Structures are given as C-alpha cells and as structure tokens.
Amino acid sequence: MESTHREVTAELSGAPYRTTLTARGITAVADEPAEHGGQDSGLRPHELLLGALASCTAITLRMYAQRKSWDVGAIRVHAALDRRQSGRAVDSRVHLEVSFGKEIPEEQRERLLQIAGACPVHRTLEGPIAITKALKP
C-alpha cells in the first residue's frame, strides 16, 4: 500500500475570520464573506475543498492526455457543492463539469471522464476518512 503525507497549517490571528494557510512555504488565505462577519479576503473553506478537487481533476486529466499524446487544449473543471444540513446530519453532493479547449473524439471524451474520477483528491473524498483531533500542550 502506497503511503503519502501532506500538511497544511492554518493560523487565525487578528481579523475575525481571515485565516492564513501555509504549506511547503506557500501561503493562501481563507475567509468568510462580510455577511458572515468576515472580510471576504479569501476563499471560503468549502471553496478551498472544491478547488482542491477541481484542480486535482484537471491535473490528472492533463497528465493522462499527455501520456496518450492527446491534444485537448485547455482543461476546465467546474466544481459545485450542494450541502443540506438537518441538525448534525449533513448530505453533501458535489458535481463536476469538465470541458476541453479543443474538440476531441467522443471515445477520448468518455475515457477522460472516467479518468476524472481517478484523481487522488476524488478518491480521498469517496473513501473512508478518519479525522483525529488533539490539543497541543
């Protein structure tokens, strides 16, 4: 079994919800919109989740197309989340829509749609996920 390890640190200090995310020396910002008390200075956490899935899908498709020497042009992945909550129960549905900058044969389109479901983030979200928590001393 292959094992990978990734880390991101989130630090919230100062502004109400503006959070700085750091991984491998690279920073990004998460925030909430003004109507939720934030400054709308970064992506919302669920948008970051969708961005991880959409970007991983696009990268996976590009890698596959390059291996096959398929010229698909630009790859665009639109990710949308519909989330319903009743008490603590949450029903989440994500829809991905993939488009290519160039016309490609239907058989390639169908194969690429299959490959879209094989990206590592997609597989992580579909598989069992265990989350542990701890307070640092």
Describe this structure in words.
By secondary structure, the chain is α+β, with helices and mostly antiparallel strands. It has 2 domains: 1-43; 44-137, 2-Layer Sandwich (GMP Synthetase, Chain A, domain 3). It is 31% helix and 28% strand. The strands form 2 sheets. It has a 3-stranded antiparallel beta sheet, with no helix packed on it. A two-stranded antiparallel ribbon has the order 4-5. β4 and β5 form a beta hairpin. The two termini are 33 Å apart.
Instruction: Categorize the overall geometry.
Output: globular
Q: Can you say what the CATH homologous superfamily of the largest domain is?
A: K homology (KH) domain
Content-based structural category: alpha+beta
N-C termini distance: 33 Å
Q: Mean pLDDT, as a whole number?
A: 96
CATH class membership of the largest domain? Alpha Beta
Strand content: 25-35%
CATH second-level architecture of the largest domain: 2-Layer Sandwich
Q: Enumerate how many helices there are, as a single number.
A: 3
Total number of distinct structural domains? 2
Rg for CA atoms? 18 Å
pLDDT under 50 segments (min length 5)? none
Taken in chain order, the helices and strands follow as: EEEHEEHH
As a percent range, the share of helical residues equals 25-40%
Report the biggest beta sheet as strand number plus sense, adding barrel if it closes: 3 strands, antiparallel
Number of strands: 5
Order the strands across the largest sheet as they lie in space. 1-2-3
Q: How is the CATH topology of the largest domain named? A: GMP Synthetase, Chain A, domain 3
